[in-house]
Known about the structure:
Blueprint lengths: L2 E8 L1 H5 L3 H11 L2 E8 L3 H7 L9 H8 L4 E9 L1 H9 L12 H5 L8 E3 L3 H11 L13 H5 L2
Antiparallel strand pairs: 1-3, 1-4, 2-3
The chain binds inosine-5'-diphosphate and magnesium ion (MG).
Amino acid sequence: MTLERTFVAIKPDGVQRGLVSEILGRFERKGFKLVALKQLTPSRELAEKHYGVHCERPFFKGLVDFITSGPVIAMVWEGDGVISSARKLIGATKPLEAEPGTIRGDLAVNIGRNVIHGSDGPETAKFEIGLWFDYSEINEWLPSDNQWRIES
Ligand code: IDP
Ligand code: MG
């Protein structure tokens, strides 16, 4: 078992299309634990840091313009293998190539409006959680049925 945390954000298109509950529900039903959640409209500085790896790409300015255009739902999810599992739940970057059953495969068509972000590895997850959240905003908690899950 690899207990991990990952950063997930519902982008402005997901919020404005009313997909927040649909997306949260998929992570909850999978069995991951929500340890932080907030709504905010990201500053340009935050967005440029978050997408810094793409700063030389032609779509960078449009991406930053879009992600700062309205509220996003920023989250930290915790669980066994959650970093790669969240990427699987999210699906491929190009929604038309994302498998049906994934969030992008089911809910999006346009690469520039692909609804959701998820950290792509352990280092990125650590960086992005620290970028978007203060340590005090992360909640340590155990579900009341936790014992039932770990006892066989
Ligand atoms: P990811 O979100 O699946 O990790 P990345 O390659 O890290 O995908 O790209 C970050 C975001 O930049 C994508 O989710 C998408 O919104 C946007 N993006 C990536 N490639 C393109 C492109 O070719 N045109 C427009 N937007 C793009
Ligand atoms: Mg990425």
